[in-house]
Amino acid sequence: MRFSAFPLFTVVLVGLASHAVQAQNTALDARIAQLATQEEPKVIAWRRDIHEHPELGNQETRTAALVAAHLRKLGLEVQTGAARTGVIGVLRGGRPGPVVALRADMDGLPLTETSGLPFASKVTTTYLGQPVGVMHACGHDTHVAMLMGAAEVLSQVKADLPGTVKFIFQPAEEGSLPGVEGGAKLLVKEGVLDKPKVDAVFGVHIQAQTEVGTLAYRSGGEMASSDRFTIKVHGKGAHGAYPWNSVDPVVTAAQIILGLQTIVSRQVKLTDDAAVVTVGTLNAGVRYNVIPPDVEMSGTVRALNPEVQKQIWASIRRIATNIAESAGATAEVTIEPYVPVTTNDPALTARMLPTLLAAAGPEHVREIKAVTGGEDFSFYQEKVPGLFLFVGGMPKGQDPATAADHHTAGFRIDESGLTLGVKTLATLAADYLNTAPAKQK
Ligand code: NI
User: Does the predicted TM-score (pTM) go above 0.70?
Assistant: First the structure.
């Protein structure tokens, strides 16, 4: 997941009548909860081991070997090398039924850890030509450990599961090197959602500024699509003292940047969905008194609705092209879609809400406002209904403002939050299978 500030102060407590707060399958869920609690020491040990040995995207070989060995020990059907380093495990329940997938991402980030933890990473590597540390700075180590725990829990109750659980340990959520395809997009392309065909997918993300014990979710657009755009403005260079001999791409680029700011403020219906257009790079010229012939800028688009996303793409092209034309220049616009909107299927979300309320307790389940960070879980949700949740990983009572953010060198997670993640993943799978409409059984 790629996000910074989490909208903690915008949460709304979900208040539901107590009759809606029952577990969907009380006896099985109670057993799962008990098994999840028993898993805690193992989950923490796996997490620390993975944290100390982080691997960048598409290089998660040690992590994958650990996962594959664990799933084989549990008796699952195991496929390795999925999208290079991914591991897929299939657990067949005691009775026939639908197929539910649970997903964890496995990759770390190129950051030198400063958390001070006894199991902090000392791993170093070279990233895009630069020497740098490697660190689990987004908590994907906890995701792997929680899903390993959920696999162990569910394998112990498999006789009572009417259907199949597919465990997806995914590489490269944080993105692959430029020009390289990977992560969820490649897994889906390779057919991770087929054979057996997946009916629904669930995933969790640990959250460093949300209290331990809390589950947070949003129905519909939860996390933004993320696209990269590049605009090359071609003008005509000249001596800086004689601008009338130029077609100045610097001034034209400045007008385009201001024009782009009107997309969100003037064209997007903000009462429906938020959106972002950010220009992050601007490169022009080499000398103060030379008007260069070209300028290049790049930026990102975030949207919470695929239609708004397409509308923004069209606006960028129109504004850049026409402003350039008005100056006698030309603009070359390239838009590279990166991840789609993380959209929690409203019907699936409503169906699984009782599971969340039972797992965390109704007072600890929050419906949040949308996040403008992106997450490649969205590629699964483009194909099958999915639900992606946040699990609290901040010590109780801490001020979120003092908790180190995701993707920073001091990032930390309170491990006492992991058991809720294990329990939630395992219960979502069991409850989904047990509440499937009769025709699917
Ligand atoms: Ni992440």
Answer: yes
